[in-house]
Fold this protein.
Amino acid sequence: MFTGLIHGAGPRYCPSIEDKIARFSERTSHQILLEPEGLNTESVYVNGFSTSLPSDIQEQGLHSIPGLKNAQILKYGYAVEYDFFFPYQLKYTLETKNISGLFFAGQINGTSGYEEAASQGLIAGINAALKVQDKAPFTLLRSEAYIGVLIDDLVNKSTEEPYRMFTSLAEYRLLLRQDNAKHRLMKYGYEFGLVEQQHYDAFVQQANSQQQLHELCNTLKVTPTQMNGYLESIGDSLLFETVLLSTVVKRTTVSLPDVLQHLAPSFEILDTLRKNQTTVQHVEHDLKYEGYIKRHLQEIENFKVNEGKQIPLNFNYNNVKSLSKEGRDKLIKHRPESLGQASRISGVSVTDVSILTLYLR
């Protein structure tokens, strides 16, 4: 890579050892992890030493590590340069805009990483199957899943290096939690026949219990007599008046499972609901972040309004005379499917979106 034979930019988050030396030359050490490759082999993967240096340099470098003076290299490091397809030429279904029925998924779309590739394969596969059945396409919003964020970013944003999916790229990440994945996505799995009936029925039962507990916390009032013993035991300030249970749960130090355990003798229904720890933890998270979640949900509703305003793929942007030169060029290049998508394209200004909105209306 350092001789200029390879021109492509490598992934920022797993650089080679020579890349690290060039970029972090002020460092005096670097961590190497020796990972056994199996129970029945003596081969070891040298994590942190990925490289495409000449073989003799690889040997010198490896043998300089304490404990590896006599190590034998079974497979030398090497570099791979990937070509890719500019993903702005894709629909959200991962079908190419130019060729009907051709779907792209994985590193061909400019991504790096196994999870990124697998998630694209899932969406492309679902939509390919739907297309041959003449059914409506399937897409996920940025507010529904990290897959939605990934594909939205790929289609709308230019990248100078392989794309990796990080939580920091999702503006609604408070909603995209591990504990609520079922509530966000299982309905789609069930619809496509990927979730068995018994599992879906169990999920629906759990969801109903969760909703019941959430509503109960927002309606059930507790007195100082009922709560102060618990609050005192955790060193929190005491109650001086009757309040909603949800108000108590929103305190930083308060644990909903512990509160239900404490109140169960007073409220029989709580004794029943507290037995499903997954449900209780989910409700606790929703209550503690309720203010932020409500704000997110309002933003999502506003987001959906523009997402629902469709733009024909053959729309002629040259007819809209008031668009900025950069905005028109980017819109012609990306051919967004909705006003919402147009607003997220780098170089398309708020004014451009407003003008486009008026023209479409």
